[in-house]
Amino acid sequence: MSLELAMITPHTPRICFPDKVPDFQKPMVEAMYRCADAIEALNPDVIVLISCHWMTSFFHYVDITPRHQGILTAVECPDLISDVPYDHPGHPELGRRMVEAGKAAGLSVVGIDDPTYTWDYGTVVPLRYLIKRKDTPVINLSVCWAASLEESMEWGRVLGEVFDETPLRVVFLASGALAHNLFRGPELWPNITEQALDREFCSHLVNGDRDSAVSMLPSYVRAAGVEAGGRHVAVLLGVLRNRFRGQLHGYGPSSGSGNPVLTIRYAG
C-alpha cells in the first residue's frame, strides 16, 4: 500500500499560533506534535489533505497548483488568525491523476491551478503542527456540499485506488471536528451524548472496524452535528481499505465541538 498513514486532525483557530494555545487545548496540540514525529519517520512523498473549511457548492476541487504560497487571514475569525504566511510545494502530477480518476468514475471533480487562491485555516493550521519538512508536497481537497455521504465515500474510494497505484508514499489528512454543534465558550466540550458518540465512532476506527464506522456514520452525523455533514470523514472511510488499526492520541474541546487526534495505519 502506498497509503502510509491516514489521520483525523483538529484545526481549531485558537491553536494556530503555538505560543498562544490556551491551556485547555495544549494536550490536543501535544498529541499533534507526537503525530508529527510519526509522519516524519514515514518520510512521505506527498500529503493529501481534505479541509472542512474549503467548502464548495457543486464540485470536488483538487488544488493542483505547483506551489502553494500566500498569507492567510481567516474570514471567519480574523481576530484569531491573521497575517499567517505559508509556503508548500504542490504535486501537480498526482493531483491531475486524482482529477482524471474522479472524472472517469463519473464524479464532478475539477482541478484548480491558481497561485492566487488563498488556503483556508482548516488547511494551514494542521500543517503548521504535523509537517516538519516544509518541502513535503501538499495536495488540498475541498468538501463538496452537493455531495451526499455516499458520493463523498465514493470519491474517497477513487482516491484510495489512485494511492494504491502510485509508488509515492502518501499521508492522508481529514481536517475537521467530529461533534460540531457550536456555541459560545471556546473551552466548552460537546454534551455528554455527543462525546459518547464521538468516542464510539473513534473506537471503530481504532479497532479497524470499517463496516461499523460506515454503518454508524449517517445517524451519527445527524445526532452529533458532525462538521461538514461528516463528508470529510466519509471521504476518509472511502480511502481506507480493511485490515487497518487506529490510535486515538488525544481528544479536545473547542466551542462545543469534539476534536480527535487519530491516526490510522494498515495492519500486516
Could you please describe the fold and organization of this structure?
The structure is a single chain. The protein has an eight-stranded mixed beta sheet, with helices on both faces. 49% of the residues are buried. It contains seven helices and ten strands. With 268 residues, the chain is an alpha/beta fold. The termini are close together. It has a single domain (3-266), classed as Protocatechuate 4,5-dioxygenase, Chain B (3-Layer(aba) Sandwich). The radius of gyration is 17 Å and the shape is globular. Helix 2 (92-104) crosses helix 4 (149-165), helix 4 packs parallel to helix 7 (231-239) and helix 5 packs antiparallel against helix 6. It has helices at residues 26-42, 92-104, 121-130, 149-165, 192-206, 210-224, 231-239; strands at 3-9, 46-56, 60-63, 67-72, 84-89, 109-112, 138-144, 170-175, 244-254, 257-266.
Give a quick rundown of the structure:
The chain is α/β, with parallel strands linked by helices. It contains seven helices and ten strands.
SSE layout and pairing:
Layout: E1 3-9, H1 26-42, E2 46-56, E3 60-63, E4 67-72, E5 84-89, H2 92-104, E6 109-112, H3 121-130, E7 138-144, H4 149-165, E8 170-175, H5 192-206, H6 210-224, H7 231-239, E9 244-254, E10 257-266
Parallel strand pairs: 1-8, 2-7, 2-8, 3-6
Antiparallel strand pairs: 1-10, 3-7, 4-5, 9-10
Distance between the termini: 11 Å
Name the CATH superfamily assignment.
Answer: LigB-like
Helical run tally? 7
Please tally the β strands and state the result: 10
Structural class: alpha/beta
